[in-house]
Amino acid sequence: MFKKTVRPYLLLTFLLAIPAARAATIFNFDNDAAGTSTGFTDTVNGISATFSSSGDPGGFAVEQTIFQTLTGNVLGDPGPALQLGLTLNITFSSALSAIDLLFATGDFGTPSPLTLDAYNGTTLVGSVSQTGTVLSLFPEGEIAFSGAAFNSVVLSSTAPTFAIDNVQVAQAPEPGSATMLALGLLFAGVSAVRRRRAAR
Known about the structure:
Order of helices and strands: HEEEEEEEEEEEH
Radius of gyration: 23 Å
Strand content: 35-45%
Shape: globular
Distance between the termini: 12 Å
Number of helices: 2
Low-confidence stretches: 1-6, 8-21, 177-183
CATH architecture of the largest domain: Sandwich
Oligomer: single chain
Number of strands: 11
CATH topology of the largest domain: Jelly Rolls
Helix content: 10-25%
Mean pLDDT: 84
């Protein structure tokens, strides 16, 4: 009797608590014209990403790839500003829980690390560094961050130049989802207890 009573409420609870499935949100620059330079904004699946640089206007620019793992268009420096050693800032329109991207650094010797600093507003919430592997001419790699909610990242490297591609992000869970789940479970439990008492 208890299982039959609770099962429909649990199903409804989980359906309410789980956010609608979203397509992968990937910023790959393939819809940006070659020569587009920072700052600019791209929007994918309702999430906007604003790309800016410490060397703007024109610190980084969209170009056709010369790399193996970064395909199509990439965002790299130097852009029209012709400055080296720049940082790249990406500000998102909503809170995120994860980011993953491909990168290449402009090294001809020992590969330099790429560093990703994640911020929630002005608060640093995490930092990761990754060094690429030389595949043909330049070191290429992948860097990822997840955990604390963030809405912007700053990318930097000791290499004179770097490029990025396929910036994939995941939105942070909506605050209401956990609350809905807790309330639904509480409601299911109370209803089950009442039905058991009424049956007696």
